[in-house]
Amino acid sequence: MLKEFDVKTLSFNPFERINNDWCLITAGNKDSFNTMTASWGGVGILWNKEVATCYIRPQRYTKQFVDREDMFTLTFFPDGFRKALALCGSVSGRDHNKPAEAGITPLFIDGTVTFEEANLVLVCKKLFAQKMSADSFTDKKVLETVYPEMDLHTIYIGEIVKAYKA
User: Fold this and answer.
1) In which element (H, E) is residue 139 found?
2) Looking at the chain, which terminus has fewer C-beta neighbours within 10 angstroms, N or C?
3) What does the pLDDT look like over 128-161, one tens digit per residue?
4) In a 3-state reduction of DSSP, which class is residue 34?
5) What is the pLDDT of residues 25-55, one digit of tens each?
6) No. of H helices and E strands in the chain?
7) Global pTM?
8) CATH, range 3-165
9) How is residue 153 annotated by DSSP?
């Protein structure tokens, strides 16, 4: 069961939790939502607010939900959910019921969506969205290596308005 806590007391290694453990970016409502696996992102302070950043490529189905909604969640899971997260990152919600296939249960809180099996949830209010620009890359090797098809991510910055842990 998830319990709300003050995000200012959050103590975790973002390199471990985001890059190695992965998380789900989810947006929508009871009628329509989608989720995707993420291993890029960050947390910190910006504009005097606790924020999370995430990055979504244009072809990802979840992007239209994050674009449409004011809120999104970053959901982290305990050990044992790697296959579920891998599935959520490898199939499209256009064609699959990801939660059912992954064995995770949607939980509707604070006007958005997360999952009952989570051990950490950051509920974010979208503050900023901007598509990356090829002209902005100062290291062109990153651009060429990560974006050979020029499908540049949109950067989302969300204020962490609530945090929950198991």
Assistant:
1) none
2) N
3) 999 999 999 999 999 999 999 999 999 999 999 9
4) strand
5) 999 999 999 999 999 999 999 999 999 999 9
6) 5, 10
7) 0.96
8) 2.30.110.10
9) P
